[in-house]
Write a structure and sequence with these properties.
The structure holds two protein chains of two kinds. Helix content of chain A is 0%, strand content 48%. By secondary structure, chain A is mainly beta. Chain B is an all-beta fold. The N and C termini of chain B lie far apart (39 Å). The chains are: A mainly beta, B mainly beta. At the A-B interface, strand 4, strand 5, strand 9 and strand 10 of A face strand 4 of B.
């Protein structure tokens, strides 16, 4: 089945360690997104990519890094520079390109990261 | 970039129509209005979207005012499974992003 997969669902890390969250899609979508969600809040954009080997910072990119070496994959690294990394992280994909403004985004089921 | 304003929470009786309002007074001519919902600790689920005209699908109807400054999502026969946070958002058309507000927590009561 086509879809977008995030792994793992739950992740625990010690403070000061970098951690990478996986996001894979088989929908043949050009655009991919990473969002952060804190309790009771809406989604905030971390990074997005409209095409392979290209990505742009969102509203809260500090302390995060991404890569887009393959169309299907858009991993997010939470670095030790992120001051408050404990949150729910959501990945999404969308058709993108000129038609992207009229298409819906598909979301993964999220990764809940807890830093202790 | 267009922002949206929604009520923080709403209640609706099971079986009745749930009408969720959204204000987007600064929306520009090429921005779409999208509705998503999120059940606790899951990824958001797409519901419907529109530009100018009213839209209907198997899940809901979207009514957009003529001036496009507000819209209403209608769930025609709400069930307990419709309890979720509903987000009204606009697309940043130039680079295909989505701008998310805090959403409306809809509680369907038996």
């Amino acid at each position: 089945d086509g879809g977008i997969t995030q792994s793992p669902k739950y992740l625990f890390r010690k403070e000061g360690q970098n951690v990478t969250l996986s996001c894979e899609q088989n929908l043949n979508h050009d655009a991919m997104y990473w969002y952060r969600q804190d309790p009771g809040q809406g989604l905030r954009l971390i990074y997005y990519s409209q095409i392979v080997n290209d990505f742009q910072k969102g509203d809260i990119a500090e302390g995060y890094s991404v890569s887009r070496e393959k169309k299907e994959s858009f991993p997010l690294t939470v670095t030790s520079a992120q001051k408050n990394p404990t949150a729910f992280y959501l990945c999404a994909s969308r058709v993108g390109g000129p038609a992207g403004g009229n298409t819906e985004a598909f979301f993964g089921q999220g990764t809940r990261l807890t830093v202790v | 970039d267009a922002k949206t304003t929604q009520p923080t929470s709403m209640d609706c009786a099971e079986g009745r129509a749930a009408n969720l309002p959204c204000n987007h007074s600064t929306i520009s001519g090429n921005e779409y209005v999208y509705w998503y919902r999120q059940i606790h600790s899951q990824g958001p689920q797409y519901i419907i979207h529109g530009l100018k005209n009213n839209e209907t699908n198997e899940m809901a109807s979207l009514i957009i005012t003529e001036d496009r400054k507000s819209s209403t999502l209608i769930l025609p026969h709400a069930t307990l499974r419709d309890t979720a946070v509903y987000y009204c958002i606009v697309s940043r058309d130039s680079n295909y992003q989505l701008i998310w507000g805090a959403g409306t927590k809809l509680i369907i009561k038996p």
